[in-house]
Specification:
The protein has 552 residues and is α/β, with parallel strands linked by helices. 37% of the residues lie in helices and 21% in strands. It has a five-stranded mixed sheet with strand order 2-1-5-3-4.
């Protein structure tokens, strides 16, 4: 017999009992279905057997590892159903391209056409597989065997991925004869996968998935994401042109000594895009306020500097304005439900003073610019004056810049809005996407350790709060932008790797943040490292690793 502790309670089971059995016994204590276990501080699939003396707890879709497990399992379900409907000869023609709201956009390659009828047939097959409650089996194979297996099946992306892997073994998942590789854990069987939807969207398919806040239901797709989708498609095209759409292709270029050219071409593409944005601003001389917003670690500061240089090249005189300098004094800062300062609330900004100052500049008046002292929590004035002439333009940066409430007293015709985010164009392989949030989290972790003395553990701990603020204050307004800019660099994770890994290894194994740290370490292990000396001094990634000519 095995005695284990489950949520602080001692329980006795037969040796060899699976965690799924234990989960069934305590399911009544959870609001949502149990999807994953934590045994002795480590994530474990429910198919794993218990160990005598182990401490066990369970995760649902309301926990980040739980919802990731659910999403991953639905992806496997989709690709199995796609093969059943389209035919195994088309197995490699469906590619996860990007996330779009609560959905995953799946691009179909040449030779197969998306339609409403196709989406309906695949969804019907997915539902049939769910009803059958088929087991999702895992087998562990030698890495060389995985390379040979996926090469034989025409999955070149996975063949290249494992060719550069240093680990000796690989886990492969099997669903009713269909085998694939996935980065992470799976649910025990298809019966768990009751919440999903599949739509025909543009020239592909949209696999709709539940959110962590409500894991049992799929939210309706918001159609107003055309601008974001267009940027993501453009980004994907960049990856194809650079022959680095997946990690295996990137590693191949690094190993072949082609990374320097890849870096230079990627940087040139970004500079060209910034130049085009500057031209669009200058073309309309009524624009006096360039409003830049984006989520954490999107590179807003460096982007604003580079855009200002391009505006100067167009004959304009740009002046940077940080909305943070219009913060209310600390004692007037609103607090969240836990009583902590909510620095991301719109009410943190002295809206009346900001609007009054900007309108005065528009009218040709002279104002004294404030500077917020974050140490004292006070706004200060130190004799910095500004008057705008015909060629002057304000480059205003802040998380609320796309929200018209922040600048409600400024004429709309004088505003040019830019949304910037790091929309990762690189996938692990064609069925495993790299979440945009992972790239931004690693950026922030490296920057905060370098400039603020924050540990990786602190950064991971505060990240859910940061993400919550973004969902409330930034993402709802992204389609209000006149243009969108993707600050992600196709090579950046290979550079960040050398900075992030030591920080992640420093996180104590008995801490709550270690599970996330371990996941990120396993993820970074896919990449061959790149020496940061190859990165130009004006690169956006320099904002995070240091060495920027803009001193950010």
């Amino acid at each position: 017999m095995a005695v284990i502790t489950v949520n602080g309670e001692l329980r006795e089971y037969e040796d060899g009992t699976c965690l799924e059995t234990v989960a069934g016994d305590v399911q009544g204590q959870k609001e949502d279905r149990i999807l994953l276990a934590v045994m002795n501080g480590k994530l474990r699939e429910l198919s794993k057997k218990i160990k005598d003396g182990a401490s066990v707890s369970f995760l649902t879709g309301r926990d980040k590892p739980g919802i990731q497990t659910y999403h991953r399992s639905v992806e496997l379900l989709f690709f199995k159903a796609f093969c059943d409907v389209a035919g195994r000869e088309h197995a490699g023609r469906a590619v996860v391209q990007c996330s779009l709201g609560n959905g995953l956009y799946i691009k179909l390659k040449e030779g197969i056409r998306a339609s409403d009828q196709m989406a309906a047939k695949i969804k019907e097959r997915m539902e049939e597989l769910v009803a059958l409650k088929l087991p999702i089996k895992k087998r562990n194979v030698n890495t060389d065997e995985a390379v040979e297996l996926f090469g034989r099946r025409g999955m070149k992306d996975k063949e290249k991925l494992f060719y550069y892997r240093r680990v000796s073994r690989v886990n492969i998942y099997c669903l009713d004869g269909y085998e694939d590789y996935y980065f992470g854990y799976m649910v025990p069987d298809t019966g768990y996968l009751t919440a999903f939807d599949l739509l025909h969207y543009e020239d592909g398919l949209l696999l709709m998935l539940p959110d962590q806040s409500d894991p049992g239901h799929v939210p309706e797709f918001q159609e107003d994401r055309k601008k974001l989708f267009a940027v993501m498609k453009e980004t994907d095209e960049w990856g194809e042109k650079l022959h680095a759409g997946c990690v295996g292709e990137l590693n191949e270029q690094i190993a072949d000594g082609k990374c320097r050219d890849l870096i230079l071409i990627q940087e040139a593409l970004q500079e060209k895009k910034i130049g085009e944005i500057a031209e669009a601003i200058v073309a309309d001389r009524s624009k006096k306020f360039v409003m830049i917003a984006g989520p954490s670690s999107s590179g807003k500061t460096t982007f604003a500097r580079r855009l200002s240089i391009q505006l100067r090249a167009q004959g304009m005189i740009p002046h940077p304005i940080s909305v943070d300098d219009y913060f209310v004094d600390r004692e007037h800062t609103p607090r969240d439900q836990d009583g902590n300062y909510n620095f991301e609330a719109l009410e943190c900004i002295d809206l009346d003073t900001f609007n009054r100052d900007m309108n005065a500049l528009l009218e040709g008046k002279t104002i004294e610019l404030p500077r917020f002292n974050f140490k004292t929590g006070k706004r200060e004035y130190k004799g910095e004056y500004l008057t705008m002439g015909p060629s002057d333009i304000l480059v205003i940066e802040g998380i609320h810049c796309l929200n018209d409430r922040m600048s409600e007293h400024l004429p709309k015709e004088n505003k040019f809005k830019i949304y910037i985010s790091a929309l990762t164009q690189l996938n692990v392989d064609e069925h495993n996407r790299i979440p945009t949030t992972d790239g931004r989290l690693l950026r922030r972790m490296v920057r905060d350790a370098r400039t603020r003395g924050n540990s990786a553990q602190e950064t991971i701990r505060m990240w859910p709060s940061v993400r919550k603020g973004e969902e409330e204050n930034i993402f709802p307004f992204q389609e209000e932008a006149d243009v969108m800019f993707n600050s992600s660099l196709i090579y950046e994770l290979a550079v960040l790797k050398q900075y992030a890994e030591p920080l992640l290894f420093s996180i104590p194994r008995d801490s709550r943040e270690y599970v996330e740290a371990k996941r990120l370490l396993k993820f970074l292990d896919y990449f061959l490292g790149v020496d940061s000396s190859e990165v130009p001094m004006n690169s956006l990634i320099r904002e995070f690793i240091g060495g920027s000519c803009f001193q950010v």
